[in-house]
Design brief:
The complex is a heterodimer. In chain A, 69% of the residues lie in helices and 0% in strands. Chain A is an all-alpha fold. Chain A has a domain at 3-138. In chain A, α13 (206-219) packs antiparallel against α14. Chain B has one domain (2-152). Chain B has six helices and four strands, in the order αβααααβββα. The radius of gyration of chain B is 19 Å and the shape is globular. The chains are: A mainly alpha, B alpha/beta. The A-B interface holds A 176, 211, 214-215, 218-219, 241-243, 245-246 and B 97-98, 101, 117-118, 121, 147, 150-153.
Chain lengths: 249, 153
């Protein structure tokens, strides 16, 4: 192969790589045009070395606008299309979750989606809401309980524990909700990252949950995750029963 | 003639009342009989227990309208509900630790309740074990009573 042919191939390869790249100017142009979804999709196409101090801010602003967009939609299907962009964006740009304005926009958006979920077909709302609510620790009053119920129904009781924990802080009467009990027991039985949250909720709601926790302990194997995770809550509280002596010592 | 008529009138009113109380007694007796049979099933606890049905609690149940009909229909359920208490306690006493705990119990009270938050719940007070059962739910079996006692002892 002649030299000019090699040069042509290399040039083609280089120009193709450049076509995928964006400059900071391109990104700022998307901001000016308010093309928030595109900005969010393509911000990682600015090479790390080319990213200036405004790059993170642009991404966070775009993510916030995408989330806020759900508040101006009137149908669940439109909101769904926007919300489905949120988890991949957060995985791609994890720093957006540290931004208080972004989290506040998510919390506000959730309120709107919950209203839509009540009016439209609520099936699958738990999955949708969970995508939006992940990482948010402060909701308007009553919202955490609604999220917990939906996530518990659509995904699973153990996946709802974070929202139940927030709901209890919001309103102590939530302790009497049977779905909270199921979530606590399921989380203690599953083990994993949310055990501490389940134990804290079980401790806060002990008067309401003691009976259910104890019944679950009767059915649990001696060395099971449930026994290991429930005993620290049950053993120091209530009467020292034969059951506790046998299973929690 | 007047006397005959008066007797006839009185009998006409008295018979249904008498029949009602006899029928009521028979229903009570059927539940008590089931409870006595249940008590007789406790063989492995090393002692016998006095089984008591809480009729006051039964009368206080939140029966739906028409209350008399609903109340009547509960007797049959209660015969079944109390049937397995003895089985449950006997099964419990297979474990020596629970058998030891049951040695402190003399009386077992069965109390039907209308609180749907509980299924079967046992509480211990002194030498008395009291079972509260949500009577409008499913009929209880041996394991329900055994597990409830395990939770309380």
């Amino acid at each position: 192969m002649r030299h000019w042919q090699w040069i042509a191939i290399i040039a083609l390869g280089t120009s193709s790589a450049r076509a995928d790249e964006l400059s900071m100017q391109d990104l700022k142009a998307l901001e000016t045009q308010k093309q928030w979804s595109e900005l969010l999709d393509r911000a990682d196409q600015v090479k790390p070395a080319a990213r200036d101090a405004t790059w993170k801010k642009l991404v966070t602003t775009a993510a916030t606008h995408v989330v806020e967009g759900t508040s101006s939609t009137t149908t669940l299907s439109t909101a769904r299309a926007l919300i489905e962009r949120v988890p991949p964006a957060e995985r791609k740009y994890p720093f957006v979750r540290d931004d208080a304005g972004y989290r506040a926009a998510k919390a506000k958006s959730i309120d709107g989606v919950l209203v839509m979920c009540k009016h439209d077909d609520p099936s699958g709302c738990g999955i949708l809401i969970e995508a939006l609510a992940s990482g948010v620790d402060k909701f308007s009053k009553g919202t955490a309980r609604q999220i917990a119920t939906m996530v518990g129904n659509d995904i699973g009781p153990a996946d709802a524990i974070h929202y139940w924990a927030l709901a209890v802080v919001d309103d102590a009467a939530t302790c009497k909700d049977i779905w909270l009990e199921r979530s606590v027991i399921a989380t203690l039985a599953a083990g994993g990252d949310h055990v501490a949250e389940a134990q804290k909720t079980a401790t806060t709601c002990f008067a309401s949950l003691e009976s259910g926790l104890t019944q679950a302990l009767i059915d649990a194997e001696d060395k099971s995750p449930y026994t290991q995770n429930a005993c620290p809550v049950l053993k120091p509280r209530g009467a020292m029963t034969v059951l506790k002596k046998k299973k929690c010592s | 003639m007047k006397k005959v008529l008066l007797v006839a009138v009185l009998t006409a009113f008295a018979v249904p009342a008498l029949a009602g109380s006899v029928a009521e007694k028979k229903k009570h007796d059927a539940v008590e009989e089931s409870l006595a049979k249940s008590a007789a099933k406790v063989k492995d606890c090393g002692k016998t227990f006095k089984f008591v049905y809480d009729w006051k609690a039964f009368d206080a149940l939140p029966f739906k309208e028409p209350k008399e009909k609903e109340r009547d229909s509960r007797f049959g359920s209660e015969i079944s509900n109390v049937e397995h208490i003895g089985d449950g306690l006997n099964k419990l006493c297979e474990d020596k630790d629970y058998k030891a705990a049951m040695s402190k119990i003399d009386t077992v009270i069965y109390k039907p309740v209308g609180d749907d938050k509980i299924k079967v719940k046992a509480t211990i007070s002194g030498s008395t074990l009291t079972y509260e059962n949500y009577t409008f739910g499913s009929t209880r079996d041996r394991d329900d009573y055994m597990k409830a006692a395990k939770a309380a002892l």
